[in-house]
Description:
Largest sheet: none
Oligomer: single chain
Number of helices: 1
Amino acid sequence: KNELTEGEAAVADKIAALCQSHLDELNRLSDKHQKVISSLTKDNDNAVAKLEAAREREAAAAEELLQSAIAAHTSEMAATLERRNAIEAAAKEAADAAAKEHNEKVASVLVEAQAKEASLQSLRDALDRANRE
Length: 133
């Protein structure tokens, strides 16, 4: 009783053929999807690599810009320090010259005052002699 009739066997063969056809189509679609996934993965990996390279270039450019700014600032600070030192040296030189001139004037006035004091003393001495005579 387990044997199929000729019609049942034909229907079973058609079902088996249809199942095989569907299985073949599923396998073909699976292969196609696997290729698409593989292609997308490869595209994604390439995009990530390009992004990382761009980030590295940006970081290198930023570092270069920073180093350039530091160098410019250092150069500007050195020039400012040089100007300040020159101004301080000129101010010291002017102060030294003014002090020397002032000291010379003071010495001259002192010599003149001593000469006048000596002259005055001479006059006092003469007056004292005249008063005694």
